[in-house]
Amino acid sequence: QVQLVESGGGLVQPGGSLRLSCAASGSIFVINSMGWYRQAPGKQRELVAAITSDGRTNYAESVKGRFTIGRDNAKNTVYLQMNSLKPEDTAVYYCNVKRVLPALNSFGQGTQVTVSS
Q1: Are 24 and 97 in contact (CB under 8 A)?
Q2: Angle (CA) 52 97 14, round 5°
Q3: Virtual torsion, Cα 39, 105, 111, 82, nearest 10 deg
Q4: Using an 8 Å Cβ cutoff, are 35 and 47 in contact?
Q5: What is residue 27's predicted lDDT score, i.e. its pLDDT?
């Protein structure tokens, strides 16, 4: 069992910044990938960004150049620095961890990000 605790969501004006954090605990073993998904009302959950244990990153096209994902392997923590936020970034953001062995694909409870003036 892996527990994920997210923090850092909130309300911000367009052009502003937020930083999300997610700490994993429990039966972690080796987490291969940590990342963030988001889900806006009426839309499917989508990948925002992910980072592997060796630092390889993957970003959605819509956030490239604005969001930066980082990871502290020693603390099993993943961060998402979000700059130049747009109203279309408004969504519930979910932390995600993936592991190959034993197999794991787990999501956190979600944190709301609202971009509005």
Answers
A1: yes
A2: 85
A3: -80
A4: yes
A5: 77
Pairwise CA distance, residues 89 & 93, whole Å? 10
CA-CA-CA-CA torsion for 43, 31, 80, 86, nearest 10 degrees?
A: -10
What averages of pLDDT result for each successive group of 10 residues across the chain (117 residues)? Answer: 93 98 87 94 97 95 98 93 98 95 92 97
Tokens of 102: 């034993």
pLDDT of the residue at 103:
87
**Cβ contact 36:48 at 8 Å:** yes
3-state secondary structure of 89: helix
